[in-house]
Automatic annotation (TrEMBL):
It comes from the Bacteria. Belongs to the zinc-containing alcohol dehydrogenase family. This is Enoyl reductase (ER) domain-containing protein. The keyword DNA-binding does not apply. It comes from Leadbettera azotonutricia (strain ATCC BAA-888 / DSM 13862 / ZAS-9). Residues 12-346 form the Enoyl reductase (ER) domain.
């Protein structure tokens, strides 16, 4: 395919620059994907949009932004084996070397090779009309899921699904989610599908509290305070929750996630950045609690998650509160930075509702 396209770049001063660039040509084992939806992640705001603070895996190399893309294959390179022209695909947003230990387990997010390149960070991402993808990084998008559903699978919902696999959630569990941004809301949504007994949230943003209530995702949402752990214990018969998740990246929020868990409870940290302060002996050791760190997911669990979303009739696009065309991508990033929203998506064609 010949011609040029628009692509969005993040100079690191809370602005977005649209540039005309050549439409890429797929090489061996690659495909050209027509972007249909690309959602904005909190890490885009934290590490790139405001300022280029990321290092290593989060180092932005002045490429086309966007690491939560979904679209349709429009051109195949030589050597493509599975995904053909017309295939609807989700992009796993890290392209790993494929031969290190982590890549062989499907965890390209943890690829240890210098060849590792994340879409929207070290190689061109989805904030453009087209994007070049390695076929090995793609997951099939079923017809029953929208492109805006698919855009949230790899990073947002995939991150949550991985954490849930680590701690386990069932009908035996009361669950607390601290921070009800898109990742926290996704956590409530998946835990509800898994049959969690009671779901509690902590959030200070009225827009996000209202979205949680509108979607009926939580039995009760508390506003942040120093008494949150005591409030959660009072709601759970004095015990605390069996499972808690922090998606806030806030020091006090993380401490609450730990202290609101009951004896033998499991806590997962998925919110990026920030710090946490707690007292190891009373907060975790004496109560036999376990804290898990969880970063994105594997490509095989991502495929499994897609099957589960269809089985459970869950549509991640219900978390999308605002859709923008690429021509207004600057407004999309600005809104996500302010935070008075659910998920924000840059959309094309039929997804631009």
């Amino acid at each position: 395919m010949e011609g040029t396209m628009k692509g969005a770049y993040l100079p690191g001063n809370s602005t977005v620059v649209l540039k005309d660039v050549p439409i890429p040509r797929p090489g061996h084992g690659q495909v050209l994907v027509k972007t249909k939806a690309c959602t904005i992640c909190g890490s885009d705001i934290r590490a790139i949009y405001r300022e280029h603070t990321g290092k290593g895996a989060e180092g932005y190399q002045n490429v086309i932004a966007g690491h939560e893309p979904c679209g349709q294959v429009v051109e195949e390179g030589p050597g493509v084996r599975r995904f053909k022209k017309g295939s609807r695909v989700i992009v796993y947003h890290i392209s790993g070397c494929g031969v290190c230990h982590d890549c062989r387990m499907g965890y390209m997010i943890s690829c240890s090779s210098p060849l590792r390149a994340a879409y929207g960070w070290q190689r061109d991402g989805g904030m453009a009309e087209y994007m070049l993808c390695d076929e090995k990084d793609l997951v099939e998008l079923p017809e029953s899921l929208s492109y805006a559903d698919g855009a949230q699978v790899a990073c947002g919902f995939g991150t949550v699904y991985e954490a849930i696999q680590k701690v386990g959630v069932s009908g035996n569990d009361d669950v607390l989610v601290v921070g009800l941004g898109p990742v926290g809301l996704a956590t409530l949504m998946l835990c509800k599908a898994l049959g969690a007994r009671k779901l509690y949230g902590i959030e200070g943003n009225p827009v996000r509290i209202e979205l949680a209530k509108k979607l009926n995702l939580a039995d009760k949402v508390l506003t942040p305070s120093d008494s949150n752990a005591a409030e959660i214990k009072a709601l759970t018969g004095g015990h605390g929750v069996e499972r808690s998740f922090d998606a806030s990246a806030n020091d006090k929020g993380r401490a609450t996630a730990i202290r609101a868990a009951r004896q033998w409870g499991k806590i997962a940290f998925v919110g990026e950045g920030g710090t946490v302060n707690f007292n190891p002996s009373p907060d975790i050791i004496h109560d036999q609690k376990t804290i898990y760190g969880s970063w994105v997911t594997s490509i095989w669990l991502m495929e499994n998650l897609v099957e589960e979303l269809v089985r459970w009739n869950i549509h991640p696009d219900t978390l999308v509160t605002h859709r923008f065309p690429l021509s207004k991508v600057d407004e999309a990033y600005k809104l996500m930075d302010i935070g008075n929203c659910g998920k924000v998506a840059v959309c094309f064609d039929e997804e631009l509702k």
